[in-house]
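Quick illustration, no need to memorize.
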Amino acid sequence: MEFLSRRTVLAGIGALAAIPLIGTTSGSAAPESVIWDGDPARGTSVFDGLETAPGSITVASDPQGKYGKCFRYETWDNPDGTKERCESRGLRLPNGSVYRPGTGTLGQVQYIGWRANWNVNPNSGHWIAVYQLHISGQSSSQPSAGPFVLRTLGDGKLYFQLTGPNGSDRHIWSANFPVNTWNNFAIGYKVSKGSDGWCEFYFNGKQQTFSNGQTRYPGATLWGDHVNHKWGVYRSGPNSGHAVAWLNHAKLGQTYADVAI
């Protein structure tokens, strides 16, 4: 039996140490668990589609000069007085494919995070939605909204609204609606059609407590085919004047750390 010298053994160990481990990252490489990055350098092609009825969605510089290029959403009055929608819909990957959390992602935990600045009137007495996790492909007997909406009812408050596949809906969190200032948001959720689903909510880096006294709220997060992440301004017709929303540092990942700001 031939014995290896100490020098040979050490050389072999050094060679093994030089081989990168699968699934690890180094330097400034992005974590592999980041699913989607809404980098404004890619323009509005980072989204699956744009819904402007009426409105415009563009890339523009942060008006406060803090965060560089951002997505700018602007809407104004419909002449017929109906509700206005200016939202980006869904997520598109750099290879051009559309990423749609749906039946193929059942059981997965995902986190969506972003930075927002809203120039809207939260005291108008009328509802305005500024973010939606919006269902698609639902049956005629299921709700067409939800599971999540961040909105105001025009009462100066920002609400986290949770909707279930049976049509039940409730506000499970609220705070004063922030206007003309940047704030950070993140929502964690388990993709589920059953009672094992849940959601979490983070506001300016702090995990929030829901109306049930817990930091997780149980419930289904999927019915129909898939859900779309939507940002912008969606408001009832009685609202009037221009409204602008800014979006920055939007990411979808598998952990809170992937999307935290």
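Confidence is low (pLDDT under 50) at residues 1-30.
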